[in-house]
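Translate sequence into structure tokens.
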Amino acid sequence: MRITFSLAAILLFLSACVPLRSMKYLIPDLGDSAKFENVTIQKSATPFYFKNNLANKVYDSLKTRLDTSLIGTKTNVFLVIKNDSIIYQYLSDGNTLAVRQPSFSMAKSFVGTLVGMSVDRGEIKSTDDLVIKYLPELAKNDERFKRLTIQQVLDMRSGFDFKERSFSPFSQITRSYYGANLKKIVGKLKMKNEPGKVFEYQSINTQVLAFILEKVTGKGMQELMQERLWKPLGAESDALWSLDNDENIKAFCCINATALDFAKIGRLYLNGGNWEGKQLISKKWVDITTNPDTLTKLRYKNQFWATRDFKFFKDSISTINALLKDKLDYPVELNPDGRYFYAKKVYDYKAQGMFGQSVYANPQNKVIIVRLGDRQKKVNLHSFVQMVGRSVK
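Result follows.
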């Protein structure tokens, strides 16, 4: 009996050990919420329901095209919503609209929205404030923290010394994902670039934002999410948000919710921050976040991604001349094949996560698309969503 108890204790310890857990699983998957402790984000007492317009014959050709195109893409749910009506839905075998799906990094857009709400309320005076105003303990790590603003963290231009892409079970991103104490990881952050100079997608930025939010509000992220977003947006179902081993919210990822409830962040932004007559977040914040010139230039703003569309040229002079003709002040970039290009002006934007998770919003066509599912190597699912969103008139 004593041996059995000791063995059980050892197995429990090993399962909770971050490096061993990361070696066992290493690559994230759709069932990850079961591997972690989670907190519940409670649904709204007054749910908002999108209208069902699936029988509309106007969209028969869209249905035919998507029914065929989505086969073999490992998509669990694909929703197209126009003017608050569901005009197309695809559900893989075994999935329903009530099944919770993982957000992965789509969670970042929710955190960015909570930052905007905190600015609106005066809890954060300005996104131009220094991070060390709210997290002064970071100042000792690197003198460049004296120049790091919240806005630079929001836009992934912090300059942190943090490697995002690594398959080592001992790397910063792997340890962050599989349960290491996120407060300790943030507390030890150093810099490798001058703040504001280089765009580099790093999940730790979102975690820094979360700790600032908790500091200025005196509330946990799950409480802020529930009170300021999930319930006011009329969530139909409870969501789960995963924790690290020390019960810190993994703010950079790991919200598990239904496709219909994820779609509501898209609707909020399409409506300028207004929800059924109530301004949940200022129109100013939404306009700054979704400004087409800003999105096209920066690729990323306030934890939302721009969609991208390019013009290619054989040389840099032709590229510059085309920019001047179009009256655009966008950067010229060099493609690996030797061609030069610039990103054309875009109006659509998205919350985006790995494996092709997406909440896409197109203000010109009043369209929201939610795609949730597994990794697909043969199809660029983000480009596919963008193509569909621009074709729905």
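Note: The longest strand covers residues 75-82.
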